[in-house]
Amino acid sequence: DAGVIQSPRHEVTEMGQEVTLRCKPISGHNSLFWYRQTMMRGLELLIYFNNNVPIDDSGMPEDRFSAKMPNASFSTLKIQPSEPRDSAVYFCASSSTWGGGSSGANVLTFGAGSRLTVL
Amino acid sequence: AQTVTQSQPEMSVQEAETVTLSCTYDTSESDYYLFWYKQPPSRQMILVIRQEAYKQQNATENRFSVNFQKAAKSFSLKISDSQLGDAAMYFCALEGFGNEKLTFGTGTRLTIIP
């Protein structure tokens, strides 16, 4: 398995431009997460999907951010219009279920991240 | 609400020595899962070790082991025989039962001294 695949690895854009980040999860994983990492705020969960359905988008900072998962093998995170404060590394992760208990834990496999710089 | 605290922003250890990274947490859940993730300079997050809170036995993965103290809400990571490739940011994380959201700590940067 190639793991979680994200593109682009790096993106430099100007303020006001639209940015689209892409993610291909591991086949068979039924949950997908988008995280943002900055020095100031650490790792923040933006949104996650289960079986392609958005479950919790409470971490999405503003209406400028949107995420879709049209099928089990593809997701996008879009920022429109972008601002300098959106500069960060954006991670996509997919998960399988592990362990006992009532529901099992989500074991995340992360992609390599997309580093976004907004000038 | 869940919180995860890593009080050591940076740690260093001599190659081949042992180092322990601290993590404390707070949760209202009676059962949960705990994880340590590693982020090397390549920036990809890699799962190091995981623990089910309802299991008493501490998890081990080769040179990596945890000291899980449920009453104290502590979940430290011990790395034995440290190697240069262990240099990375280490993140402690918690997930409650039935809650798919992981809460991460702020990380500890580990430096290995040759």
Descriptors:
heterodimer; A: 119 residues; mainly beta; 4-stranded antiparallel beta sheet; 0% helix; B: 114 residues; 6-stranded mixed beta sheet
> Which bin fits the share of residues in helices of chain B?
under 10%
Largest sheet of chain B: 6 strands, mixed
Radius of gyration of chain A: 14 Å
**How are helices and strands ordered from N to C of chain B?**
EEEEEEEEEEEE
Beginning-to-end CA distance, first to last residue of chain A: 36 Å
Count of DSSP strands of chain A: 11
The shape of chain A, in one word, is: globular
Q: What is the SS-derived class of chain A?
A: mainly beta
CA(first)-CA(last) distance of chain B:
41 Å
What is the 3D shape of chain B? globular
Structural class based on helices, strands and sheet pairing of chain B:
mainly beta
The count of strands of chain B amounts to 12
| Largest interface, C-beta closer than 8 angstroms, per-chain residues | A-B, 29 and 24 residues
Average pLDDT value of chain B? 93
Describe the largest sheet of chain A. 7 strands, mixed
Count of helical regions of chain B: 0
Which stretches of chain A of 5+ consecutive residues score pLDDT under 50?
none
Quaternary arrangement of the chains shown?
heterodimer
